[in-house]
Design brief:
It contains 19 helices and nine strands. The chain has a five-stranded parallel sheet, sandwiched between helices. The protein has a four-stranded mixed sheet with strand order 1-2-3-4, covered by helices on one side. By secondary structure, the protein is α/β, with parallel strands linked by helices. The chain is flat, with a radius of gyration of 26 Å. Helices cover 52% and strands 11% of the residues. 35% of the residues are buried.
């Protein structure tokens, strides 16, 4: 078997530190060109890679290089067809403005956290914990499904505390890593070292605590640590996929500790938040993203933020490799065959619910036989969205609203269409509603 190159060794370690889709997008096609005693030269296929990879993944690459046993050798990126290395990652020194503090991801700051309705409360609570010295929210327990930003928010607390109180000891602990530490500590009689590391923390950030359920020894260690840290006023933050009371197999005494401060949840991002996230990502990547493409991606990608960002990265990559601007057509082509199956057609009831909520109404009010302007105008918008988003016929639209004649539906649609042309703000408002269901 052929001996793996130094870059291949780095990639093996990098796989566990980078999201799978991001790894496929940015690293799958890279290969080693050569190496010296001082550097490993890696071929890059696109100019976009030259700036993007070291900026976004420099710390992970540096750590992977250390784990691969490459010492202080630099990783130098070379664009295919050129001989000069235009970007460098050095394991011997942190990347400019991207240095890690402990195990905190340098990208996980409040400045890079996009706020929307689903995460407003959690963001406000995290900001309070990061800025205040009071312990009203201790512990802070952040829960929500995978990929909605729990770890980002937790680590943002750590970054902010360190920036404002450089002497503080901030410790980020991932639950599965803690389990392994406890197992190793017991096996080799090193539990005192494991305990002391946690007890030295002024701020303990404990991620994905639900994985401790059913592991009695590890849970007991956390319980004792929690009591000790809490008694001396250290701030503790937990994240979990579910509420404390819903963690199966967790002891009542542990649940009571989790619920003793403040429990906040983060929901899946709504359409507007996803659009805001994409625009933020576009700014970071220094690419243009028009409304049509942002609305298309936000409507099509209905899962978590991490997946949204990964698919957007793929679109950016295809745009760069082709030398073409990002458009909806390019995004559709870049994601053809890999987007989640959305073959189940949106129901009219879903659209009525969304439009009604947008105007502070109930779906039944849109269907009511009334000529009040408060109802009539949102009803016309609903008719327009039903036609534009899922192509419902005029007779079908009429039947949804108390068997109104199809000419009534046609009149409503024409009226909304005309107003869109006259009012740019209203045009964007309706475009957002339509894009959610296309």
């Amino acid at each position: 078997m052929e001996k793996p190159t130094s870059w291949e060794k780095i990639l093996e370690h990098l796989k566990s530190r980078v999201d799978e889709r991001d790894f496929d997008t940015w690293f799958r096609g890279t290969r080693q060109k050569g190496e010296t005693t001082d550097a490993v030269f890696v071929l890059i296929s696109s100019p976009l890679f030259i700036d993007y990879i070291p900026r976004e993944y420099g710390d992970q690459i540096a750590e992977a290089a250390r784990l691969a046993g490459l010492g202080a050798r630099e990783i130098r990126f070379v664009l295919e067809g050129r001989d000069d290395a235009r970007a460098v990652v050095s394991p011997a020194r942190p990347q400019p403005n991207r240095s890690r503090v402990g195990d905190l991801n340098p990208a996980y700051t409040f400045e890079h956290f996009v706020i929307g309705k689903p995460n407003q409360l959690a963001h406000a609570a995290a900001l309070h914990v990061a800025d205040q010295t009071s312990h009203r929210y201790n512990p802070l327990f952040i829960c929500g499904p995978t990929g909605v930003g729990k770890t980002h928010l937790m680590q943002a607390i750590g970054h902010r505390r360190l920036s404002r109180r450089p002497g503080e000891r901030v410790l980020y602990v991932y639950s599965e890593t803690f389990v392994k530490e406890v197992v190793t500590g017991i096996r080799f009689n090193r539990m005192d070292q494991v305990r002391q590391r946690l007890l030295n923390a002024d701020v303990l950030l404990f991620d994905d605590v639900q994985f401790l359920a059913g592991k009695a020894t590890t849970e007991d260690e956390l319980f004792q640590t929690f009591n000790a840290l809490y008694s001396i006023g250290s701030q503790i933050v937990f994240t979990s996929d579910v509420l404390p009371r819903d963690i199966p197999g967790l002891t009542d005494r542990m649940k009571s500790r989790f619920e003793g401060g403040l429990v906040v949840d983060i929901q899946q991002p709504d359409f507007e938040t996803k659009v805001a996230i994409l625009r933020h990502k576009a700014e970071i990547a220094r690419v243009e993203l028009d409304d049509d493409t942002a609305y298309y991606l936000s409507g099509k990608i209905k899962t978590h933020v991490r997946e949204l960002e990964s698919y957007f990265n793929r679109v950016v990559l295809v745009s760069s490799m082709r030398g073409e601007p990002i458009t909806r057509d390019l995004a559709e082509e870049a994601l053809r065959g890999i987007l989640p199956d959305d073959s189940s057609k949106t129901s009219p009831a879903e659209i009525l619910k969304a439009v009604a909520a947008h105007y502070g109404l109930k779906p039944a009010e849109l269907r009511a036989r009334t000529k009040r302007e408060k109802i009539v105008f949102p009803r016309q918008v609903a008719m327009y969205v039903l036609k534009e988003a899922i192509g419902l016929s005029l007779p079908e639209i009429g039947r949804l609203f108390g068997d109104k004649h199809h000419t009534t539906a046609l009149h409503s649609i024409k009226k909304i269409s005309a107003r869109r042309e006259e009012d740019p703000d209203f045009d964007r408002e309706v475009a957002v509603l339509v894009a959610q269901f296309r």
